[in-house]
Amino acid sequence: MLKGQQSWVFTNRPMITSTGVTGGPFEANGNLAEDFDRLYEDLWLEQDSYEKAQRVLLEDAIDIALKKANLNKEQIDFLFAGDLINQITPSSFAARTAQIPYFGLFGACSTSMEGLALASFVINNQGAKKVLTGASSHNAATEKQFRYPTEYGGQKPPTAQWTVTGAGVALVQENQPGQKNPVITSATIGKVVDMGLSDPFNMGGAMAPAAADTITAHFRDLEIDPSHYDLIITGDLGRIGHDTLAELLKKSGLNIQKGQLADCGLLIYKEDQPVQAGASGAGCSATVLYGHLLNQLKQGKYKRILLAATGALLSPLSFQQKESIPCIAHAVAIEMNN
Amino acid sequence: MYWIRIIMALFVLVCLTSCAEKQQMKDSQLALIKATDPKPVVTDGKKGSEQAEDIKHDVSSFPEIYDVAVVKGKNGALVVYKVKHMQRFNMKKIESKVTKKLEGKYPKEKFTVSSDYKIFLEVVRLNEKMRAGTISNQNADKRFKEIVKMTEDMK
Amino acid sequence: MAGKKNTTPEQQQYQQLQQKHEKKRPVLKNCIKAFFIGGLICTIGQAISYFYIYFFNFTEQSVGNPTVATMVFLSMLLTGFGVYDRLGQFAGAGSAVPVTGFGNAVISAAIEHRTEGFVLGVGGNMFKLAGSVLLFGVFAAFVVALIKTLLGIWGGI
Lengths: 338, 155, 157
Known about the structure:
Chain A is α/β, with parallel strands linked by helices. Chain A has helices at about 25-30, 50-70, 90-100, 110-125, 140-145, 205-220, 240-250, 265, 280-300, 315-320; strands at about 1-5, 5-10, 15-25, 40, 80, 100-105, 130-135, 160-165, 165-175, 180-190, 230-235, 260-265, 280, 305-310, 325-335. Chain A has two domains: about 1-175, Peroxisomal Thiolase, Chain A, domain 1; about 180-335, Peroxisomal Thiolase, Chain A, domain 1 (3-Layer(aba) Sandwich), CATH 3.40.47.40.
């Protein structure tokens, strides 16, 4: 049900009954390693290209999510998935393997929440019974497309971010009363915001206004106060974007406590890992939400969270042609079923 | 970290290869690094050794030059020198100055002037062999011509 | 959107706000690191060229070619073993400016596109990064040679 200008409230409370989270070797050394279902020691995943490796990450995440829920692929109605590689081939190829009716999404790093919002909407309005949604990214495949070759010895500035190797998949279905599972209560779809920044090595700074725009719109549309949530967490803003967002939200008059605002890109890796400003990539918010954050919800550390995943909608072509970086953010509110 | 170890290993390797040659250093082994100041040699018997001394003295008098080797062969003299580090920008100028001075003073002699380390090294090696008597005059002269040819190759 | 001309006041305001939080490159620290690592690479190069002078028949003039070839070969090995990109992150220009950086640019692109096959992948992309260095290097050499030739004809230098 539409509320306000750009938000959905899911009165039927669609439920996340199962998740599958896979990661690469760099994530295995990271902060949240125990929240992954499967971690690979090798960046290639025994495939002969990084693009195939990314496909396997997503395929495995889907398999794990289904196995945990004791379901077959045939019982799933739709798959909402996307990633960053060219024509989102890793997601489409994984959908070919899965043989589930498929929506391919592109929202750059915000794809995870775009998918979750759409999946929840479809479930909420009886468009389907069981829907899978997920996003994936692969460090080397993304670097290859957007930046330099992996082994190229160029120096990255301290504002650069490290693309996560990983995939996160969630199974969304109708609310099962009495089950202790996270439910999706509302979502806010963001507008494209462009503040004229054009440095592809400073995505956080470019994406922060989009996150601020969506988060303020969420509170305006739903007529609630930030204290409604225990945690407001952004997708992959990194250190620079996170600090900028905090200041932007403060300026817009939202009363957000210290420690209430967090960022997936700052959680996933340890301090001593060479990631400059933090993590990024479509897999970043997907793995952190479907792994770490949902676990914390289940453990009762948080009651309600709002996740705003941000995406930089640039292409290698557009920034070479000196275009600025348009950005988007989608927010989804999740809480435990009572 | 991984790559720091790699760099250390390379560094140690470089040190070791240069230190390994410490025992029984001949001048030729150090000719690239320090001043050896070799005595001038004459491949053609005893004749002209005084003139060779003079040539060496003349070239050494240039303030930019710190190490001079002279070989006098049957038809011509080879003069090799090292230029002080900060003067290496003026190599060409120094070379023409040296050539001019020598040709003015010894108009009968045919001079080959070079500041190349390789030539210097070969001259020192030839010098050592002649002093040790392990090379005949004929062979020495042949080698002399080869070295002169080497200087021509690079022009 | 090149330049600041086309930005709206709102965008400018944000960019100023964002600048406060943006971490600057530590320029001085980077320069010092580049100086020492670059110096180290050049020292290794000098050692190699002395090696060729000493044991082979190369003069100071002609020793450049085998030295460059050896250095590029070494950087190729380091690139293949995944060391050079870490060195590059540490040293910046120190490892990019010497000829080893050129080798790295060629080899890293070749490795990266190996998955697209030898002809379209390796062949087509090998000079993706280094190609512009070659083009503008050759072009600059041409212009300089042209100027020198013309000065020689007209100016009699």
